[in-house]
């Protein structure tokens, strides 16, 4: 089953400018920045109370984030949920009729296994599943 919301992902054109905006908005600096080479993005993470916000900026014009911004503009890109067993959740959600974009989880930001559910099967919202990678 899906757990709590892990973070909200926000697509941005300029990570430095977006960081400045969210620093002013939230009254704090990002606690982590990380490049995710496989997705051609660089991220910044902010805490907002118990919640997290991930800003995502493209590092390559062919990345999913660059294409998203070109089509829809900056804004909320995805909602991520914690899961205890990402493989079991992928199987469960596929049986429920959701379109799975990643049949196998991949390494994402913040030391997590991640996989995505196509927005066409979840009322227009890209859903990310996140599971901590055991160290």
Automatic annotation (TrEMBL):
Signal peptide: none annotated. Its EC number is 5.1.99.1. Keywords: Isomerase, Metal-binding. GO terms for molecular function: methylmalonyl-CoA epimerase activity. Pfam families: Glyoxalase_4. Residues 4-132 form the VOC domain. The keyword Isomerase applies. Belongs to the methylmalonyl-CoA epimerase family. This is Methylmalonyl-CoA epimerase. The lineage of its organism: Bacteria, Pseudomonadati, Bacteroidota, Flavobacteriia, Flavobacteriales. The gene is mce.
């Amino acid at each position: 089953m899906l757990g709590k919301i892990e973070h909200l992902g926000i697509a941005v054109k300029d990570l430095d400018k977006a960081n400045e905006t969210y620093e002013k908005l939230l009254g704090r600096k990002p606690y982590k920045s990380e490049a995710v080479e496989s997705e051609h993005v660089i991220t910044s993470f902010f805490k907002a109370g118990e919640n997290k916000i991930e800003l995502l900026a493209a590092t390559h014009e062919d990345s999913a984030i660059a294409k998203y911004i070109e089509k829809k503009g900056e804004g909320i890109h995805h909602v991520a949920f914690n899961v205890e067993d990402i493989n079991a959740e992928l199987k469960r959600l596929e049986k429920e009729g959701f379109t799975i974009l990643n049949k196998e989880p991949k390494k994402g930001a913040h030391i997590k296994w991640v996989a995505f559910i196509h927005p066409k099967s979840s009322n227009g919202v890209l859903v990310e599943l996140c599971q901590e990678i055991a160290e």
